[in-house]
Amino acid sequence: MDKPQDAYSIADLAREFSVTPRAIRFYEDKGLIAPAREGLRRIYSARDRVRLKLILRGKRLGFTLREIQEIIDLYDAEPTGEAQLRRLIESCQRSRAALRQQMDDIRITLEELDAVESQCSQLLHSQTEGEQVPPP
């Protein structure tokens, strides 16, 4: 049986979005997408394709699956998108704050690594010149 023009197989979507079929089935198990069934075969609609694209974009932006689900559900409930846009803005702000905190943590860790490396280099240099220097 031929598939409709706006229908996609799991292999089609996996190839298009560079994800595994297993990942797509995972999102299906979580209720984020709901393909039609033809026996054991999954038939994904244009709507499923768009939802998968939104899911993957949300993951790249650092959103949780729950946040992604809420945003998608808001769009389904209110196609004008006002509530969805407000929720998306909140999620962006929360994600941005978390990423800034991670940047601060990474900066501090890098500074600590620089200090330890410098101390080790000084110790190594002192030992090669014959001095006895206690370890850092």
Automatic annotation (TrEMBL):
Organism annotation = Pararhodospirillum photometricum DSM 122
Query: Per UniProt, which keywords does this protein have?
Result: Coiled coil, Dipeptidase, DNA-binding, Hydrolase, Protease
Q: Does the keyword Amino-acid biosynthesis apply?
A: no
SMART domains associated with the record: HTH_MERR
Protein EC:
3.4.13.-
Coiled-coil residues are: 82-119
Recorded hits in Gene3D superfamilies, A to Z, give: 1.10.1660.10
CDD domains for this protein? HTH_GnyR (cd04776)
Highest taxon, organism lineage: Bacteria
What Pfam families would the database entry show?
MerR_1
Per UniProt, the enzyme's principal EC class comes to hydrolase
> What sequence ranges are listed for the domain HTH merR-type?
7-74
Q: Which InterPro entries match?
A: DNA-bd_dom_put_sf, MerR-type_HTH_dom, MerR_fam
> What protein name does the entry list?
Transcriptional regulator, MerR family
Question: Which Gene Ontology terms cover its molecular function?
Answer: dipeptidase activity; DNA binding; DNA-binding transcription factor activity
